[in-house]
TrEMBL record:
Protein's UniProt name: DNA-binding transcriptional regulator, LysR family
Domain HTH lysR-type positions: 1-59
Recorded family membership: Belongs to the LysR transcriptional regulatory family.
GO MF assignments: DNA binding; DNA-binding transcription factor activity
Pfam families, alphabetized: HTH_1, LysR_substrate
Stored PANTHER family: HTH-TYPE TRANSCRIPTIONAL ACTIVATOR TTDR-RELATED, HTH-TYPE TRANSCRIPTIONAL REGULATOR
TM spans (from-to): 234-254
Highest taxon of source: Bacteria
Keywords of this entry: DNA-binding, Membrane, Transcription, Transcription regulation, Transmembrane, Transmembrane helix
């Protein structure tokens, strides 16, 4: 008996609840699948399925064998993948989900270079702010920004996600430049719908602490303003138009900050949403072996972004007040 083939046929039959469907998927005869199961049952000394008019139902022994067999098959698949990938060019369809704004600015511009370097990889890009279930949606890798929640997914940090408070020079001349976070409460704040309440939190940057052992001083600011939107690019446009102050990621606001259409305020403070540091992440389903097409995509963008990321070049670093 080919134990590997028989075990794989058993696992698929348990999932499809049909010998004929399993045979069709594996391109063998139904009698071959039936023979595999019979030989496994003889070897194990136990029935694996109960047959009924509704199809195949696993016995208690069948459920136990399936649980362990799936781990064994996955281990064999991983071993084949990691070994064969040593001499294999990354290839196949790579399904990627990206946030629309970040993707347009920092993923899409690098795609021509990626596709030129890896001509055997076809890309299927899903642009959405929705956090998709990667397994259900068949996603190979997701680019996400912010703080990673607790998750069974694997993640690699590609770049920091630095945010700054800024406003147009005309707005700041008209309303005054805030010198402390508390002074923001007197300003028109352009708020994101993604933030659950009307508050921004700030901590003094490490460069402004009296000693490295000092805990960051956290200040929470209640915001006021007439406008809220879920579109970060709309917040950017409104800030440039002089409608208020905004808390924006540097990957989005960098060009306007360099061109002085926006002016950063409170550079000695860092915006916080929690204890964890936000970042730009590459996220992928948990596997012992990461496929070569996912690995080269993640490595490519980590290299393209740089450390610190290129979008922070020329921007004022945190400084002492």
């Amino acid at each position: 008996m080919d134990y590997f083939a028989a075990t794989r046929a058993f696992v698929r039959a348990a999932e499809l609840q049909s010998f004929s469907k399993t045979a069709n998927e594996l391109s063998v005869k139904t009698s071959t699948v039936s023979r595999y199961i019979s030989e496994l049952e003889k070897d194990l000394g136990i029935a694996l399925f109960n047959r009924s008019t509704r199809g195949l139902v696993l016995t208690e022994g069948g459920r136990l064998f399936r649980e362990h067999a799936m781990f064994a098959l996955q281990a064999l698949d991983d071993a084949r993948e990691v070994t064969s990938s040593l001499n294999r060019t990354p290839q196949g369809v790579l399904r990627v989900t990206i946030p629309p704004a970040f993707g347009r600015l920092h993923i899409v511009p690098h795609l021509p270079a990626f596709m030129s370097r890896y001509p055997d990889i076809d890309l299927d890009i899903v642009s959405t702010d929705e956090t998709l279930n990667m397994i259900d949606a068949g996603i190979d890798v997701a680019i996400r920004t912010g703080v990673m929640p607790d998750s069974s997914l694997m993640a690699r940090r590609l770049a920091p996600h630095r945010r700054v408070v800024c406003g147009s020079p005309a707005y700041l001349e008209r309303r005054g430049i805030p010198r402390t976070p508390d002074e923001l409460s007197a300003h028109d704040a352009l708020r994101l719908s993604l933030i659950p309440d009307d508050k921004w939190s700030f901590a003094r940057s490490p460069a402004n602490l009296q000693s490295s052992r000092d805990a960051p001083e956290l200040t929470v600011v209640e915001l006021k303003g007439r406008l809220r939107t879920g579109d970060q690019e709309a917040v950017l446009a409104l800030a440039v138009a002089g409608c208020g102050v905004a808390l924006l990621p540097t990957w989005l606001a960098a060009a306007d900050l360099r061109a002085r259409r926006l002016q950063q305020v409170l550079p000695e403070w860092e915006a916080r949403t929690g204890r964890a540091d936000p970042a730009v992440w590459a996220v992928y389903p948990p596997k012992k072996v990461v496929s070569s097409k996912v690995r080269v995509f993640v490595d490519f963008y980590a290299e393209a972004f740089g450390e610190p990321p290129y979008w922070d070049d020329g921007l004022a670093p945190a400084r002492a007040p």
